[in-house]
Design goal:
Number of strands: 12
CATH superfamily of the largest domain: Metallo-dependent phosphatases
CATH architecture of the largest domain: 4-Layer Sandwich
Distance between the termini: 58 Å
Structural class: alpha/beta
CATH class of the largest domain: Alpha Beta
Largest sheet: 6 strands, mixed
Number of helices: 12
CATH topology of the largest domain: Purple Acid Phosphatase, chain A, domain 2
Strand order of the largest sheet: 1-12-2-3-4-5
Order of helices and strands: HHHHHEEHEHEHEEEHEHEHEEEH
Strand content: 15-25%
Radius of gyration: 25 Å
Length: about 375
């Protein structure tokens, strides 16, 4: 099933889009070049189609994003045109209307506009806040946790931009900062990887900065990795950031931070949540950090109160999020949801993978205020 989703479905969509576009180009050539011979129309169609489709061989290029949005807008315009023709009882349109329609100009302009918005949206980082309540004993002021993931450093940010984001996070006065994986990836150079963690390691958090790996961090998708997993681990630790890979860490005697190994690597070696908490103090608030939003039922049954994840990018490029929900690629694509005693938070990420474009959701860092309402109410009544 996963092979179908990740391989056959995108390939089928791409081939269908290419065939559809060729047909649209041929219709435009026939409309504007009606006096041309059939052979010349065919040659012109092939040339224009090739100019539009061949750049897709490098699917990481921006043209891929523009192309796919253009095809979607062409389909929408075709559907709209069909409805209008039915309503007009097939009365002929003025020449200029037919010329605009056949040229595909509206679809091109719409695709460029949406991609331009997506570029701005990717670089416009917002703060998302949640208040999470617990009945576990903790200090009156509770805890402020900053969580962000999916930076994919090098795709959108340079050093100066990352420093600006780090400054914003510091101004939240966090008790702890949690990095939820995919901070770097296979396109990040060794110098960029070291630069990113040096900047993030300088952020100030009362109880420290913690890190779980994502599926991209260790550079396992690259044929010629720019850095090794050991170089990555050494860099993170030298920056003063604690790695939690199937490990737990007590915070201030009241919180237990549980960091899981990413399931995208050697899933057989990944410990279960039950194994990770088998000797943990049940009186603490258990915070589970797993890059991918999966195994919520196990987390809830084990006694975790809060689970933090990233990975999904909330789709990033439309209709990614729609497809993720449709095919249940993840148990939660984005947002904050409470099921029983477990609060589940999935971030859209502070940036994105592959393309510096985001046409779904926004780039964000998440601020979580973890409080015991009874302790807060008691403090207010004394005040």
């Amino acid at each position: 099933m996963m092979f179908l989703i990740w391989m056959l479905l995108p390939l089928t969509a791409m081939l269908s889009a290419a065939v559809y576009l060729c047909r649209k180009v041929y219709a435009a050539v026939c409309f504007f070049g009606g006096k041309l011979s059939k052979k010349k129309r065919t040659i012109l169609t092939a040339a224009v189609s090739a100019a539009l489709i061949l750049p897709l061989a490098h699917i990481r290029g921006m043209w891929f994003v523009i192309f796919m949005h253009m095809v979607v807008f062409l389909l929408v315009i075709d559907l709209f045109g069909l409805i209008v023709r039915k309503c007009r009882r097939n009365k002929p349109f003025p020449y200029w209307v037919k010329a605009v329609y056949r040229s595909g100009l509206l679809a091109v302009l719409a695709a460029v506009a949406v991609t331009g918005f997506g570029y701005w949206n990717m670089h416009h980082i917002v703060k998302t806040e949640y208040t999470v309540q617990t009945d576990k004993e903790m200090r009156e002021e509770g805890y402020t946790i900053v969580f962000f993931s999916d930076l994919h450093y090098g795709t959108t940010m340079n050093a100066e931009q990352l420093k600006q984001a780090a400054d914003r996070i510091e101004r939240e006065s966090p008790d702890m900062i949690i990095l939820g994986g995919d901070i770097v990836d296979e396109r990040t150079s060794l110098a960029q990887m070291r630069e990113a963690f040096e900047i993030m390691g300088n952020m100030d958090a009362r109880f420290g900065i913690f890190y779980v790996y994502g599926n991209h961090d260790k550079n396992e998708y690259a044929r010629n990795p720019a850095y090794t997993a050991q170089e990555l681990a050494d860099t993170i630790e030298q920056a003063g950031i604690r790695i939690l890979e199937d490990e737990t860490c007590e915070i201030n005697g009241e919180l237990l931070l549980i960091g899981r190994a990413d399931r995208g690597h050697d899933s057989g070696a990944r410990q279960t949540i039950v194994q990770l908490v088998e000797s943990a103090d049940a009186g603490m608030e258990w915070i589970l950090v797993d890059h991918q939003p999966v195994e919520y039922a196990e987390a809830a049954e084990s006694g975790c109160g809060l689970m933090l994840s990233g990975h999904t990018h909330a789709g990033q490029v439309w209709p990614g999020g729609l497809l993720a929900d449709l095919f249940r690629m993840n148990e939660l694509t984005y947002g904050c949801r409470k099921e029983g005693n477990l609060t589940e938070v999935v971030s859209s990420g502070i940036a994105g993978w592959g393309y510096p474009v985001r046409t779904e959701k926004h780039s964000e860092y998440v601020v979580i205020h973890l409080v015991n309402p009874l302790r807060t109410a008691s403090s207010n009544s004394r005040g």
